[in-house]
Every structure is written in structure tokens, then in C-alpha cells.
Specification:
single chain, alpha/beta, eight-stranded parallel β-barrel, globular
Length: 238
């Protein structure tokens, strides 16, 4: 198994707690950061603009993705242009559709033509990938974010989808594929094996990096000790 520092896939930290984001920013193996309104809401953030701008005062040298949150495409455009103005390292996250299932392709095309770096998110089908690729500008960097973890939650293997997406994206060479919503540390190595450009990883999964190449006999013994100690603490008797 490759060491984390030897992987070609870029690991982006996914979160919304300021202290964790700044800590991840300091780590050399973290190549970028992402967040979204759900994570920000869970973190108790009330002022969207202030939070994003505050983070950007420190994180200036790695890509950072912030998401629009309107359900109206004209207002999404307004929000996207403002978010893009906050820094050269900012990518604007655009959901693949609004809540009415109306696709974002026209907006993506318009913003790409205006040289906005985009992160098109919540993608789960190859039809969506094809339409996004068509909408992108070949001279503007963009991320195509497939929620591989959620695809796997439905019992489908996401790897063939990711591989097909990589092939489709070759016509827009500045576009990069994101393996989003991973469910386990193994997904990082799976993404690397297929040539996926980026994987977004939550802090809970990143904490497991210390287990990479951990001796399985020792891990087995650790698990047995855990069961025993918890039984003792609970005071179980038979």
C-alpha cells in the first residue's frame, strides 16, 4: 500500500470548523479544502460571508471551494460572482440542479465563459457529467464532483462511473474529477488507483490516517482489549 505522501490523488479536507480547517491547511498532504452549507450549518455558522472571508485571510495558497445557496439561477449567478471575487484560490460550488430538478448547465456555461473557477457538485450520473463537460470552458479550471460515497450507498459500485467520467473529461483538460463523500479510508487508495484527481475527505476519516499499514495482528489484539476493557468498565457479570 502506498504511503499518503506518495499518492497522486490530491486530498482535500472537507469541513467547516475554523480550527480544523486551519490545522488541515498546515498539513503538506492536504492540497485543498472544501465546505458546504450543510457542514457550515452543523458548525453553527450564522454569517456566511464573514466566515468565508475570515478563512481566506489565512488560506491563500491552496484551493478553497465555497457553495452558492440560492435556488434561483439568476441569484446563484449573483452569489457565484461575489464568491469568486473573494480570492484567486476560490472555486465556486454550483449544485448540479436546483431543488426543482432543473439542471445548472446554462449557468455553468455562463460562469465558465466569465472565467469563474467552478466546482459542480452533487453529481451522481454520467449523463450529468456529459452535460457539465459540454458546458465548461476548456481554458478555465473546474472541478466535477461525483458523490461516489452516496452512489455506493445505493448498492452501486462507483468505480466504473468514476472511470468513465475521467474518460469523458479528457476533452476539457483543465477539469479535474473529485471523488466526493468517501465512506472509508480505503476510498483514498481506490481513487488513486483509477487516476481520480481529487478526493474530499472529512476530518473523521482523516483521523484514521495513522492506521495506514498498521499491523493487523496488533489491530486484532487492540480490538480484543477494547471488548474486554469495556466489559470490565460496564461491570458485566454472568
Amino acid at each position: 500500500m502506498k504511503k499518503i505522501d506518495h499518492l497522486k490523488v490530491k486530498i482535500f479536507a472537507d469541513g467547516a470548523l475554523k480550527n480544523e480547517m486551519l490545522d488541515m491547511h498546515q498539513k503538506t498532504f492536504i492540497k485543498g479544502l472544501t465546505t458546504n452549507p450543510t457542514l457550515m450549518n452543523k458548525a453553527g455558522i450564522k454569517d456566511y460571508r464573514s466566515f468565508c472571508k475570515d478563512i481566506l485571510t489565512v488560506i491563500k495558497d491552496k484551493p478553497l471551494s465555497f457553495e452558492v445557496f440560492s435556488d434561483d439561477f439568476s441569484d446563484m449567478e449573483r452569489q457565484a460572482l461575489e464568491i469568486a471575487s473573494w480570492g484567486d484560490n476560490v472555486y465556486v460550488k454550483i449544485p448540479i440542479t436546483n431543488t426543482k430538478a432543473q439542471p445548472c448547465y446554462a449557468l455553468v456555461k455562463k460562469l465558465a465563459n466569465e472565467k469563474v473557477k467552478l466546482n459542480i457538485t452533487a453529481i451522481m450520473t454520467l449523463d450529468q457529467v456529459a452535460n457539465v463537460v459540454d458546458a465548461l470552458d476548456k481554458n478555465v479550471a473546474a472541478y466535477i464532483s461525483i458523490f461516489a460515497g452516496r452512489v455506493a450507498d445505493t448498492g452501486r459500485d462507483p468505480i466504473p462511473i468514476m472511470q468513465s467520467a475521467l474518460h469523458m473529461m479528457k476533452e476539457k483538460p483543465l477539469s479535474e474529477l473529485i471523488w466526493a463523500s468517501p465512506r472509508e479510508l480505503l476510498n483514498i487508495f481506490q481513487a488513486d488507483q483509477i487516476g481520480c484527481h481529487i478526493i474530499t475527505v472529512t476530518h473523521d476519516i482523516l483521523k484514521k490516517l495513522a492506521l495506514v499499514d498498521y499491523d493487523l495482528d496488533k489491530y486484532s489484539l487492540d480490538t480484543v482489549k477494547m471488548f474486554y476493557n469495556d466489559a470490565v468498565i460496564a461491570g458485566y457479570k454472568l
